Amino acid sequence: MAFVTHYFTRALSSSSIRNAVIKHVTIIGGGLMGSGIAQVAASTGHSVVLVDTSQDILNKSTKSITGSLQRVVKKKFADKPEAGEEFVQKVMKNISTSTDAASVVQSTDLVLEAIVENLKVKQDLFSSLDKIAPEHTIFASNTSSIPISKIAVSTARLDRFGGLHFFNPVPMMKLVEVIQAPGTSQETFNTLLDFSKALGKHPVSCKDSPGFIVNRLLVPYLMEAVRLYERGHGSKEDIDVAMKLGAGYPMGPFELLDYVGLDTSKFIIDGWYEMDPENPLFSQSPLLNKLVSEGKLGKKTGEGFYKYK
Ligand SMILES: NC(=O)c1ccc[n+]([C@@H]2O[C@H](COP(=O)([O-])OP(=O)(O)OC[C@H]3O[C@@H](n4cnc5c(N)ncnc54)[C@H](O)[C@@H]3O)[C@@H](O)[C@H]2O)c1
């Protein structure tokens, strides 16, 4: 596969070192998040390669990106459908797919990982890519809950490793949490901030602490909603309505859990429980465990707390 290779641009004077400019992005994981990030990166003129384990999955990713772009275009180019179609084609031209991460990362500025929320699997991936990716390539994880430093230790590029935590649905959600692990260099951190802005997002700086900002507040709330339901304090429908009409939240906790994915939510709470089993905010839920074991993972599988057609 032929790629245009883009290397860092640096200022000549050391007193005004410019941050690296990310042009070519490799996104590993073409699921919910990876597809969304690919869409946004390609829409903002970046050259994107989306990597997953099979071509079948990648075909689904491409289909979902096209569908999402077409929804954007319907609104944005309501009066000019031809210009809209041109835009979709232009964006899709910026995206290619591959099942072979090793061959792709040889010419990339940023490897952004959005695979399963499992430390060992993420470490194995980064450890293998570290041996192949060029010196200048920055590695970043979109993990929701795993400390970036724990993933980064699998590589020899701690200074060029940070966190980029996007929110679902990526094309709609403005926030990106940019995580500076203890080893992340200031230049890498600044580059990731700049990259987030180049995607049209609003970055916030976060320390490498569990859940960063949003999930550290959100996940204990979601789990307490499940416990409330388990204790029979209310039906899931009533709890959802209560939080929407009483707290002004756009989605109820069960709707949000189904949207995020119950497996992803379980990974998060399991990891935090393991880290601090005495903390009641991190206690596990038998109901969540049961649904995940039955493959009811939320919207993406057609059933979670609710059923979807
Ligand atoms: N779902 C959310 O709302 C959300 C929000 C922010 C961050 N995240 C994080 O983003 C990551 C991905 O979450 P998701 O919801 O997109 O999951 P997902 O299950 O929709 O997608 C994961 C994809 O990764 C692929 N994959 C797994 N192992 C791989 C490997 N070794 N190489 C290449 N591809 C591989 C899978 O085939 C799948 O397509 C997780 O770390 C999650 O915590 C999720």
Provide the descriptors you would attach to this structure in a database record.
N-(1-d-carboxylethyl)-l-norvaline Dehydrogenase, domain 2, Rossmann fold, 8 strands, alpha/beta, disordered N terminus, 45% helix, single chain
CATH superfamily of the largest domain: NAD(P)-binding Rossmann-like Domain
User: Cofactors and ligands present?
Assistant: nicotinamide-adenine-dinucleotide
> Topology as H/E string?
EHEHHEHEHEHEEHEHHHHH
CATH top level label of the largest domain: Alpha Beta
Low-confidence stretches: 1-17
DSSP strand tally: 8
Q: How confident is the prediction overall: mean pLDDT?
A: 92
Portion in strands: 5-15%
Oligomer: single chain
Provide the domain count. 2
The proportion of residues forming helix, as a percent range, comes to 40-55%
Overall geometry: globular
Q: How large is the count of helical segments? A: 12
